[in-house]
Hints:
The protein is α+β, with helices and mostly antiparallel strands. 39% of the residues lie in helices and 16% in strands.
Amino acid sequence: MANPSQCLEEGAGRWPPQPPGPYSEAQRLALEELVAGGPAALRAFLRREKLPPFLSEPEVQAIARGALPPAAAPEPAAEPSLDASSLTYFPELSDLEPPELELGWPGFGSGAFRGLTRVEAHFQPGCGESIYGCKEAVRRQIRSARQMIALVMDSFTDTDIFKDLLEACSQRQVKAYILLDQSSFPHFLKMCKDLGVDLGQEKLMRIRNITGKTYYTRSGARIVGKVQEKFMLIDGIRVTTGSYSFTWTDGKLNSSNILILSGPAVAHFDLEFRILYARSKPINLREMSSYRKNTVLDQLLRITVSSRDLTRENSLRMEFLYLRAFVGNMKRKRSWLHASREALYTSSNAMHTSPPLTKRNDSPVMRPHWVVER
């Protein structure tokens, strides 16, 4: 058997041999079949090409359900230009400016000292003083923040942790950046709605959504990946990372772990967050604030359509829904009531006539009337 030096001298290649790269043309063609024809087409392609299955059944179902169809309208063609530089495409550069961290960011330069290297490990369920080691460690880190909290999470529906973030922003003036996976973002909005939190009023909190990589097929269909990174930066000097998600089930039922790191390792998470933030997309806070009003109007429309006869009950319900839809807060309600009162009652400068008289038992008596004092 030839030794490694003989193989190199004979030009047999590098030693040890390099493993195959991550790209596979056969797998790419199999994904095309899955998106175009479903799981049955995928299995038929694998049998025909004599390929081993490389996707589990949950992955097959998730890709088949989550594949997005191609856009209906084609992209507009670029206008011709005499500038030769416009014909060159640089994939490493972006045509858009990255979003700014407008609330501020800790100013650590390259290689700056971020404290001594320390590592804390927490597990859940724990066997020490508390079985909820991960959740309590996360809440302690949030309470210890003094300048900034930067969070990347796949799912965030734990109300206790979210209340800690709100308290840090409102009482200690801590800036908070939150990046959430797009697929779980509606659940986060539902939690905020249930708590009565208007994200548009949180001036020290910036919330954006993000996705994983996007795979484009030849037909134009897209397969969008998820973000499963979970870490939280505290003041640029500590980071909490691990398998723990900010959900009730991870806080009470699931087994998970986190590491609290400090020192030079934090710089890698600092850079990763800024890269993810540049890829993230903003949310429309105006649409979120009008979500409740739109829900009320939809309910009002259903009542109007379903009730052909306008009964007294339906009339009262419609009037109540109108009030809920157009009177958003107490200040607007007071101004609306004040305007209604001005329209109903005469001004104090107007001349008042005497109450009309009526006869009762052949004696003139005053007719009952309302007296409104302003």
